[in-house]
Design a protein that fits this description.
With about 160 residues, the protein is an alpha+beta fold. The protein has helices spanning about 15-30, 40-55, 60-70, 75-85, 120-130, 140-150, 155-164; strands spanning about 35, 95-100, 110-115. It has a domain at about 15-120: 50s Ribosomal Protein L17, Chain: A, CATH 3.90.1030.10. The protein has 7 helices and 3 strands.
């Protein structure tokens, strides 16, 4: 029975799994988005999100703690200089998993894991969605109603002639 065994071993030894997740976390921090399998992405999410939370407090101790997980100087610098100011007000949920489908070779579920505040395409669509307005009539119908409004009707012509 597997009661309360929450770690997905991913078919690897502990040291191999730790090294793989460390490398994937460094790649995610450097590139802001990576493509991987769904199982690895879910395991990576549990590693990366606490590291990003630690980066909110920029101290020597926190940098050393994060470096002990990542083992990559450039990734630690990127995390503390670029990512942490952008996510400072976010209370959690720093990553997003987008499913892509299944891989042809072994039918594994493939997905993209990305940092939420760094997807410019999603941010642009969100901004443009708030700026647009809804139209209730199509342009052809609007043009037809405007043309009808500008032409005087038969009763209006009689009334205007009688007034003169």
């Amino acid at each position: 029975m597997r009661h309360s065994r929450t770690v997905n071993h991913l078919g690897r030894t502990n040291s191999h799994r730790d090294a793989m997740l460390s490398n994937m976390a460094a790649s995610l921090i450097k590139h802001k988005r990576i493509t991987t399998t769904l199982a690895k992405a879910k395991a990576l999410k549990t590693v990366v999100e606490p590291l990003i939370t630690k980066s909110k407090e920029d101290s020597t101790h926190q940098r050393r703690v994060v470096f002990s997980y990542l083992q990559d100087k450039e990734a630690v610098t990127e995390l503390f200089r670029v990512i942490s100011p952008k996510i400072a007000d976010r209370p959690g949920g720093y990553t997003r998993i987008l499913k892509l489908g299944n891989r042809l070779g072994d039918n594994a579920e493939i997905c993209i894991i990305e940092l939420v505040d760094f997807n410019e395409a999603m941010l642009k669509t969100k901004e443009s969605a708030t700026k647009t307005t809804r139209r209730r009539k199509s342009t052809k119908k609007v043009a037809a109603t405007e043309a009808k409004a500008s032409e005087p009707t038969a009763t209006e012509g009689v009334e205007s002639a009688s007034k003169e």
